[in-house]
Amino acid sequence: MTNSLDSTRLRNLKEKGFKLLFLTCAIISIITTLAIIYILVSDSISFFSEIPITEFLLGTEWYPTMMPQEFGVLPLLAGTIMITVGAAIVAIPLGVATAVYLSEYADKRLRKIIKPILEVLAGIPTIVYGFFALTFITPILQNIFPDVGIFNAASASIVVGIMILPMISSLSEDAINAVPDEIKRGGYALGATKLRVTTNITIPAALSGILSSFILGISRAIGETMAVTIAAGRTPNITANPFESIQTMTSAMVEIGSSDVAVGSLPYQSLFAVGLLLFIITLLMNMVSQYMKSKYQEVYD
């Protein structure tokens, strides 16, 4: 009887210990997030006390470390959008097609080969992707289009698209696999082909998960740093030509952070203003992802 009571007491003690451990981990995550927001906001407030926010958001020149200093973030925003759109054009069709093939068409043996290869892509360091773009993709583009510069937005977009491809394909595949087989069998029972079942039943039923994978992949592309810095260069430039060098927001932050600007100076504080804008953009993207997921989510009994 006494042993049984001791065992129950020990089990309850372990449960409380694990509960406390998990709660501590959750609190650490929240505190870390709040600390990042605090640092971004506090330094940004100091920056915006000297540079009007309209000048920052609408200015078309970005030269924080040169004289005269210019803090217009539009060139960086345009470069970030160009890379993100280009990466989405590469990754979304390829990712969805790969997900459909793996979930609907590939046999188990082939799936066991393709899936790990995609996962390897996700594990490659981003700096390796940058040099891959510089030494492999750019020369190919230059052979096709002689006007392509060494640093250009096109190669950066392609390589970032390759980087986010595993995320989109993996999440889309999970969403497609979550569609109940009974729904697909209903389509086959009506005489539909596999392609029609996939395009008219499976993909619409998995739409919420597929759209969420797009948003998460795009959010990842927006925040990419090293590959873009190496492949696209560091030219703050508003252009629609993907063969020119551009600079993204993350790349500008790296440039300022690695320069010899004094801590607390205006160029140093501009780093946090750009970071805050980037944080707001990715936060909005995540909110859109959650909205789409809830709006188009199918609930099955």
Automatic annotation (TrEMBL):
Membrane topology field: Multi-pass membrane protein
Protein's UniProt keywords contain Manganese:
no
Transmembrane annotation, as ranges: 20-41, 76-102, 114-137, 149-168, 201-222, 268-288
Any idea where the ABC transmembrane type-1 domain is? 77-289
* Subcellular location per the Swiss-Prot or TrEMBL entry: Cell membrane; Membrane
Task: Output a single Gene Ontology CC term carried by this record.
Answer: plasma membrane
GO MF annotation terms: phosphate transmembrane transporter activity
List the InterPro entries hit by this protein, alphabetically: MetI-like, MetI-like_sf, Phosphate_PstC
GO annotation, biological process: phosphate ion transport
Presence of the UniProt keyword Secreted in the record: no
Keywords in alphabetical order, please: Cell membrane, Membrane, Phosphate transport, Transmembrane, Transmembrane helix, Transport
- Where does the source fall among the domains of life? Archaea
What PROSITE patterns does the annotation carry? ABC_TM1
NCBIfam families for the chain: phosphate_pstC
Family classification? Belongs to the binding-protein-dependent transport system permease family. CysTW subfamily.
* Physiological role: Part of the binding-protein-dependent transport system for phosphate; probably responsible for the translocation of the substrate across the membrane.
Under the heading PANTHER family, the entry gives: PHOSPHATE TRANSPORT SYSTEM PERMEASE, PHOSPHATE TRANSPORT SYSTEM PERMEASE PROTEIN
This chain belongs to the protein called Phosphate transport system permease protein
